[in-house]
Amino acid sequence: MSILIDQDTRVIVQGITGRDGSFHTERMLEYGTKIVGGVTPGKGGQEVQGVPVFDTVAEAVAATGANTSVVFVPARFAKDALLEAAEAPLKLVVCITEGIPTLDALIAYEALKAKGIRLIGPNCPGLTSPGKAKVGIMPGHIHKEGRTGVVSRSGTLTYEIVASLTAGGIGQSTCIGIGGDPIIGSRFIDLLPLFEADPETDSVVLIGEIGGQDEVVAANYYQRSMSKTVVAFVAGLTAPPGKRMGHAGALVGGEDETAASKIEKLEAAGIPVARIPSEVPKLLSLAKMGYTHASA
Amino acid sequence: MKIHEYQAKSLFWEYGIPTTTDIVVSSPEEAAQAAETLGLPVVLKAQVHVGGRGKAGGVKVVSKPEDVAPTAEAILGLTIKDLPVRKLLIASAAEIRKEVYLSLLIDRGASKVVFIGCADGGVEIEETAKKSPEKILRFEVASKSLGGLTREECLPFATRLLPDPKNADEAAGIMVTMARMFIERDCSLIEINPLIVDGSGSVLALDAKVLLDDNALFRHPENLEFAKVETDGEDAKSNSNGLSFVQLDGQIGCMVNGAGLAMATMDIVKHFGGSPANFLDVGGSSDPRKVVGGFQLILADKNVKVIFLNIFGGITRCDDIVKGILEAREQFDVTVPIVIRLAGTNEEEGRRLLQGTDMIIAQSLEQGARKAVEIGKN
User: Fold this and answer.
1) Reduced to 3 states, what is the DSSP secondary structure of residue B325?
2) How many CB pairs under 8 A join A and B?
3) What pLDDT was estimated at residue A113?
4) CA-CA distance, A204 to A151, in Å (whole number)?
5) With an 8 Å Cβ cutoff, are A159 and B343 in contact?
6) In terms of domains, do B71 and B108 share one?
7) Domain that holds residue B120
8) Which whole-number Å values give the CA distances from A263 to A221, A284, B270, B282, in the listed order?
C-alpha cells in the first residue's frame, strides 16, 4: 500500500500545455500514472502526449472522473487555478508552482481546506508511490518499491536522500515533498499520522531544514503518538543566522529555528538525525535495531 | 523583502496610519538642519535592517541643539550586527502616555493572518512573550476577509490593548487600515512597536516595520523603488537574476539547484573540513542563463579556489545546466577547477555534453564534496 496516491489515482494536469507541464506529463505517463486529462484555458480540444485538454477543471473532472490535480500553472495565475480546483470534486491537489505570493497561497489553501480537499505544496516536487504512480516532478528512476515513507520540506534534497535509500536497498512506500513556502497545504504533522496508519509503511524518513517550527512539532508528535521508526536529516547547519536562503520559509529566527536546535530536539525525542545525506540508510537500519543516536 | 523604517512610514502616510513627522538624513549637517526644522527634542534612529538597534546605541534622544551633529556622527559611524548605518531618521520626540505592541502578520505555523497585540509595548516584547505568554493577544482574520475588515470587528481586540474608548476606537481604525495595506501591498508583516498614546491623547505609530512579499513583486513594481536604496551587496543583486545568493567567506564556490540541497551541500563541504564561499540556489527552472549569472557572482569572489556544482535534476534538466556552464566558460575566463555532480532528469544528456572538457565529474554528492574540499585546500 501507499498513502495519498496509488495505481488507481486519476490525475489531471493544470497547465498541461506549458513547457514544464507537458514535459512532466510525459514523465508521469512513462511512470505508469493514470493521467486522464489536462487543463489550459482556451486550449480545450487539443491533446498533449495523447491526453485530452479541457478549458476548465470542472469539464476535465466531469469527462474523466479525475480525483487528483497537479498544478504547473505559472505563479501569477496559480491562485485562480487553485480556486478553480477547489470548486471541483477532487480529493487531492498537488501544486508544483514556485514563487506564488504568500497571500494567494493562503487564500487558495483556505478555499481548498473548506471543501475538504488536501493540498500538497505549493513550491514542491509532488509525490511518488514507487511502482504505482508519481504525481509531480520527482525523477522516477531514483525510487524503489518498499516500506519506508519519506516526507520532506525540500525538493532536490529529497531526490538526494531517496536515491541513497534506493542505493542502500531500502525501498519506499510513498515519498512526499511538502514544499518550503511559508504557507503549505500539508505539513509533517498532517502526514506523519497517515504513515503511522499505513500497514505497508514500517518506517519514515523526515527531511527538514532551517526556519519555522515544523520539525519540533513533528518531534513532539513522534514522542506522543508514533510507534514506527523515524529518522531525520536537517539541512542548514552552516546557514548564517538571519539570511534568506532561497525559500521564504527558510529564515532563521529564534533559537528554535536553527538547524542545530532542531537536530537537538529531534534527537531528544528519540529520532536519530543523520549528519550527511548518505548516512540516512545506515541510520535507518540501526534505528530498526533499536539504536537511537547517530553516534551509535 | 525588508524595507527601512522611513520607507515603511512613507507607506503609513500614504494609507493614513497616523505616525510621526520625520526627516531622513545621511550626514551630521543634514541632521542638525532637520532637528532645527522639527524643533527639539528629537530622536535620532539608525536605519538598518536588524532588530535591537536601540540596545546597540542606534537610537538616541537629543535635547540640546549643539548635541545633534555629534550624536548623528556617532550613530552614522556605527556598524550594527555587521550592517553599516548609512541613513538616520530624525523624529520629533513624542510625549508617551502609554505604549503598546501591535502587528499584523502571516503566522506560518497556524497558516493564518493574525493580529498580535500586547498591552506592554516596547523593546522587551520578546521577553514578555517568553515570560508571560498569556499577555500576547491574537486576533485571526480569514485571508479573504482581510480587505473587508470593519472597525466594529477590530474594536474588542483594540479595547484589550487600549481600554480608553477613544483610544480603542482610533486603534481599531488603524487595524482596519493595516489590513487594507497588508492585502493591497502584499505585506508579510506590518509591525508597530510601539503604538502610543501621545501627550494630546492621540494614538499613533512611533515606529514602523514592514516586510513585503518578494513573490508578489510582479504585481508591485512600485516596491522595487524601496529595494533600489538598499542594493548595496551581491545578495540583493542576485535576486534580480532569479537567483538566490548569499556571500560567505570560504574558498569553495557552490552552485546547486534547490535551497534545501544547496544548504545540505554547504553542510557537507563543512563536514569534510572545507569552507563554502557562498550559498547559491539556481532555482527550480531550467534556464541556462541563470547558470551564467551564477558563475558571474561566484567568479567575482577572488577567494574562490574551486567551484562545486551539485545538480539533482527534477524540473531542472541536467543538460540545460551543462549548456549554461559551457556558455559561462566561453563568456568568462574561468581559471579555477570545476567539480560537477549530475544526477536526475536528463543526467545522461548532461554527461554527454561534458565529454572532452577538463571538468571533474563526481559520481555522488559525497565524492564531489570531498574532491572540492581537497582542491580548495591547495
Assistant:
1) helix
2) 184
3) 96
4) 7
5) yes
6) no
7) 96-226
8) 15, 16, 17, 27
Give pTM, 2 decimals: 0.89
For chain B, the maximum distance between any two Cα atoms, rounded to a whole number of angstroms, is 78
A110–B343 CB contact, under 8 Å: no
Of the candidates B6, B101, B170, B230, the residue annotated as catalytic is B101
ipTM value of the model?
Answer: 0.85
Which of B43, B64, B92 is where one domain is finished?
B92
With CA atoms as reference, the chain A residue closest to B248 would be A240
**Partner-chain residue, chosen from B143, B264, B343, that has the shortest CB–CB distance to A106:** B143
Which of A103, A182, A209 shows the shortest C-beta gap to B260?
Answer: A209
Q: Mind listing the pLDDT tens digit for each residue in A177-191?
A: 999 888 999 999 999
Determine the residue type at B305. Answer: K
The tens digit of pLDDT for each residue in A38-64 reads 999 999 999 999 999 999 999 999 999
Mark which of B226, B252, B283 sits at the end of a domain.
B226
Which candidate from B142, B214, B257 shows the least CB-CB separation from A156?
B257
Q: What is the CATH number of the domain that holds B25?
A: 3.30.1490.20
Segments of chain B assigned E as strands:
22-25, 42-46, 59-62, 79-80, 83-84, 88-92, 96-107, 112-118, 137-141, 187-198, 203-205, 209-212, 244-247, 252-256, 278-281, 306-313, 338-344, 360-362
Q: Are residues B52 and B183 in the same domain?
A: no
User: What are the cell numbers at B312?
Assistant: 539533482
Q: Candidates 3.40.50.261, 3.30.70.100, 3.30.428.10, 3.30.413.10; correct CATH number of A139-288?
A: 3.40.50.261
The CATH number that domain A10-120 falls under is 3.40.50.720
**Interface check A280 vs B, CB under 8 A:** no
Query: Does residue B13 lie within any of the structural domains?
Result: no
Contact A154 B259 (CB under 8 A): yes
Phi, psi (degrees; rounded to nearest 5) at B35: -65, -40
